[in-house]
Amino acid sequence: MAERKKGNRVIRQRPDRRANRTILVRSLFLMAIFGLVAFIPLFVKLWQLQISQHDYYQDLAVKQQTRDSTVTANRGTIYDSKGEVLAMSATVYDVQLSPRDLQETLETYQEKVEDAQENGGKLPDYPEPTDQFIAENLAAILDLEVDDILDHLQNKDSQYEIIKKKIEPEESEAVQEFITENHLSHGIYLMPTSKRYYPKGSLAAQVIGWVNPNLDNQGAYGLEAQFESILSGQTGRVVTAKDGVGTELLYRFEDYYDATDGSNLTLTIDSTIQSYCESILQEGVEQFDVQNGGFCIAMDPNTGAILGWANSPGFDPNDPWDVSDPVLLQYLEDIKSGEYTKEEAYEKALAEGASTDEAYEAAVSAAETEVLTTQWTNRAVRLSYEPGSTFKSIVLAAALEEGVVSESDHFYCSGSATVEGWSRPISCSYKPGHKDQTLAEAVANSCNPAFIAIGQKLGAEKFYDYLEDFGFLEPTNIDMQGEPTGGGQIIWSRENFSNVNLATASFGQRFQVTPLQLITAASSVVNGGHLMQPYVVSQITDADGNVLQHTEPTEVRQVISEKTSERCRAILEKVVDGGTGKNAAVEGYRIGGKTGSSETTEDDHTIVSFLGFAPADDPQVVILLAYDNPKPAYPGANTTADGWYISGGNMAAIKAGELLEKILDYLGVEKSYSETADVMVPNLTGLNLADATSALKKNNLSIRVVGDGDTVTGQIPANGASIPGGSEVVVYMGAEVPTDQVTVPNLDGLSMDQAKQKLSALGLYLKATGATEYGANLVAYDQSIAAGTSVDRGTTIEVRFTDSTASGAGL
Amino acid sequence: MKKRRRDLTVMQQLARGPIDIPFLMLVVILTVIGVIMVFSASYPTAMNEGLSPTNYFFKQATFGGVGLAAMYLISKINYQTFRGLSVFVLAISIILLVLVIPFGYGRSTVGAQRWISLPIIGGFQPSEIAKVGVIMYFAARLSKRNTQKHKRLPPRHPLSGLYAWLDEKGVLEPIPYFVVLGLVAILMLMEPHMSGTILVLMGGASVLFAAGIRLYWFIGGGTAAAAGLFFIMTQTSYMATRLAIWKDPWNDGMNGRGSGFQTIQSLYAIGSGGLLGVGLGKSRQKFLYLPESENDYIFSIVCEELGFIGAAIIILLFVLLIIRGYWIAVHARDRFGSLLVVGITTLTAVQVFLNIAVVTNLIPSTGISLPFFSYGGTALMIQLGEMGMVLSVSRQIPAPKQE
């Protein structure tokens, strides 16, 4: 019964034990469920997420919450041995547009205009930053298409639209000016980035290599690739927090790792010697109509340091994809015109069902790739070739060291030789035969039968030992990219080294070595027998200039004795001194060397080379100069269209002589003159005749007097001029000194006497170089001052003579 | 003093009894922590909206302060008064639920017409009031069920025998409650407001259960609900995609950028908290990654900033609050008090459970706010008001007998 007290209106329930008990029990049940059981899975789930899977979710969360931007490390500089910069990095800029920011800039501008109109204020004094306005101006500055920039600006939500990368400083200045003038700093950004410059252009391009600007400036070829980790340094990182829409939370700065700048390389290469090597190589390529380029290495034989290393065809690492070599361009032109198709690629494309047009495209693109690879490749380290007669210098050294031959030995050449195991006679390059010759003469003649005999005396075992000792069976381990791991040689194994192989190997044929192996071995022949490990990087320094690594010359082994080396030098000097290498002779310098003409598997494809060293008594430099495939005038011809006889002695030797002279001059090696050597003209003014005559005599000069005064009033040539010894100096005693100029005559093709006469008639002096002392067939082919130039009287004209006698192939 | 006390009736004296300190303390602690967490979680959102960073915090703190004061005032009211009020509260909430359909708002923001704006009070969800209304009305009615007159059909009526039998077995008794619940549920589903409906049903069911309605209703109801849920989950495409996202939030057709995004961001926040958290105020996920970080998903930020330890402590505080609530219920002076507190406590418990279960992806997502934590002034005030009712009941718990 509900008890109802009307007065205070309190309603009371009727006590009910059973109902109360039900509520108690069921409430306790609910408490158990909702106060306890229900929350257990929550704890379990939280444990899983926060403890078990913490790392997983944290990684994902951090990934989306942070922006990891890199701080570019400055790439190290590459210096030559004199500290000249060969490769350097500089800051350039990418032009980045933020259409989103530009939209805001535009809105700000419009607000200003509205504000000005409403309140009568001043209108902005710069144009409205419309997309069209921005696109037109930037297109003009950056040489881009207006429409392309407009396309970028259409991405209204984007903040990162890079319209041009790595612009030049002039362009970035112009852009900066445009930004400032038009108040566009909120929307157009210049993002600093790094660009690699090669200040000396194509100089040593294949050695230095290049970086790929499309792949984060990673080294792609050459030293840039080989020393990538050292040059590139350690990229720094800035990790910043960002919010859900990508805005950086600057005050929530997270982490900063400094960038470590890359280290610098100092090379053994000397820019000057390098440029000599390159120009000589290039001159020869043009002069001799060379089809496949060539290479020229200059090495310090005493240390193994590479002084110069030229490859042709060359390229400019500032734009490695640009083909500028005329031969390569011609080749591409020929492919494109269909003169010769790139057969393999063409046929392959056709076989794959391409139309002829597509096949043509495939052929052209294959040719382009081939051309690029060709110009990038440092062939002197990567490719092998038949050394030819240059290898005889090595055989000579081995034979002398073993004592199987001596300078007093005589060899008879009938024009050919037979070898056991080979049915046909092996002929000498000089068909009539060299007849009887001493060892030195045999080397100077580059006589094949004589070397077959020397090889036989050595025997296959010994010969092979020397191949090993001179390093032909292993890589040179130069600090350069691309050296074939096996050494690159294509050579017989010891077991297969038969008697016939021994015979051909004796004169450098039927096997291949890399140019680097050859010059390294040749260095050991002339430097006292020390096989040095070649190197190009002399020093690595960090960004602060601390030396991290200094390369000391490494001797691999002593191959021959000092004494044998000395004997080799003497014999090899004879090659230049009247032998097949006489065209390499340089007045005043003692040069030794060996010529070579290597055969290849292709018809009419010869590699002509010259291996030279100087000075012969104390070698400071060894060079290996080779031209690959001078074009014969017609198939089977042994001269080029210009009449150059295709052989090492008639091509490489000439250029090698010029090169060695330049290098020795540069290295400060004094010329040692004979009586015709250059002398200095002393100052004669004010002297009497007797004193003047004796002063000239002291300098190995004669006198011709003009006028009849008491003292000398003038002279030709002037005081300090250098003229060949024995020349006549004109002394003016009171008479007026003629000041008119004379025109240099053309001396091409003249004999030395003819040239001398022609010059002295004009009051000019002749200085003869090249093969000046040998044979009767000397003709001038080059003069230091071009014909037609006006010069002062008394000027010395340097004329290079060559022995035009064809001296046979295989030299 | 003595004189005054003598003037008071027994009932009045009881109503002035001591408040339940543990329960009060738990509510205050949770509210304070909740407001602090709103500050931490909301300032990036506020700044992004161009508001002062403390904008949400001040609003929430004001409502929290006013709410706590209101709670205390309500606790001073003799809860017997609520019996009489219950019908009006229920009626008002039903009227509001009807009004919200033409006059409410929210369709443009959340796609459901859930809010209604009233002068002075401002915008709030009628469903919040409906929950209290249902619980109050059910508790008031069910506390008197033992005195309820059992209707009988006229003896001559052909079904009178069946009717009497059904009545005896308790089949008929809950039908009026079901009608009320059904009406409220349908109105809320029209908004639509799925999660609110679940909470109202759970709140009402808990009162019915505690009051002693026959168990088979709950067994049957539970089975039916399970079957219905199973049907919806497996047979309708709407739930099928939700389920797929629940199983793998990245599998939303947009690689986690579509409808699974919020869940994924919540998991990132919780997971990156680890054992000790990234530190109070140092959440990164609140920087526009986690949508509604100050609202339904505030617990994710709690987990991220305070770690497993902090989150566990907060859950523990909720558990203690709930257990204390039931303790008050079983010690209440009368059945109305018991049922009222059971309903409110269960409602709170379910809400806490569902919210945390959603943010941890234990169950498919549905929008349920976390009591005392989620941003929302009127919701907080209503919750604190409910707590005031519980405290009011606690005042009349008879003191233990002194030995």
Task: Output the helix-strand order of chain B.
Answer: HHHHHHEEHHHHHHHHHH
Could you say which overall geometry of chain B the principal axes of the C-alpha atoms support?
globular
Point out poorly predicted stretches of chain A. Answer: 1-11, 806-811
Amount of helix of chain A? 25-40%
SS summary, helix count of chain B: 16
Q: Unreliable stretches of chain B, pLDDT < 50, 5 or more residues?
A: none
In angstroms, what is the radius of gyration of chain B? 23 Å
Shape of chain A: extended
> How does the helix and strand content of chain B classify structurally?
mainly alpha
Class by SSE composition of chain A: alpha+beta
Total count of helical runs of at least 4 residues of chain A = 25
Describe the structure.
The complex is a heterodimer of chains A (811) and B (403). Chain A is α+β, with helices and mostly antiparallel strands and 811 residues long. Chain A contains 25 helices and 35 strands. In chain A, the strands form twelve sheets. In chain A, strands 4, 5, 6, 7, 12, 20 and 21 form a seven-stranded mixed sheet that branches. Chain A has a five-stranded antiparallel sheet with strand order 14-13-25-24-23, with helices on both faces. Chain A is extended, with a radius of gyration of 40 Å. Residues 1-11 and 806-811 of chain A have low confidence and may be disordered. A two-stranded antiparallel ribbon of chain B has the order 1-2. Chain B is built from 16 helices and two strands. In chain B, α3 packs antiparallel against α14 and α14 packs antiparallel against α15 (335-359). Chain B is mainly α and 403 residues long. Chain B has helices at residues 2-7, 10-15, 21-48, 55-76, 80-103, 107-110, 126-142, 160-168, 175-190, 194-211, 215-235, 237-247, 261-273, 298-331, 335-359, 377-395, and strands spanning 116-118, 122-124. At the A-B interface, β2, α1, α2 and α3 of A face α10, α13, α14 and α15 of B.
